[in-house]
Amino acid sequence: MGRLQRTKKTEKKKKPGEVGELTPVAGEEVAETTENAVAVVSTPDTQKKKQPVPQKKPLTVPMKIGYLENWIQFLRESKAELKKVTWPSKKQTIGSTAVVIVLVVIISLFLGLVDMTLSSLMHIVLQ
Description:
three-stranded antiparallel β-sheet; 43% helix
């Protein structure tokens, strides 16, 4: 399978319609040339596999950092994270608080009613 290689513009000026010469690498054949690109057909034995990119080692923190330095670092990182937070507006906060209070009142009334009903049933059954 071939691949398309772009040639870099040379410093010497070419005449219009003139195509630059291409010297194929050993084991490759030139399939087609144009003014801007060259198609090079590679044989499987000349294709090279990409080398894996070495990963950077993570930065290590020295083990003997005092408690004060740990707290200062924690506070700095917390401040940086809090700047990334999208805070709700005052109107959204009031609306959410009202919904929570209403739901708490409804659920507490329901649970109170169920509790009174069950306790009166238990009182009747035990007598």
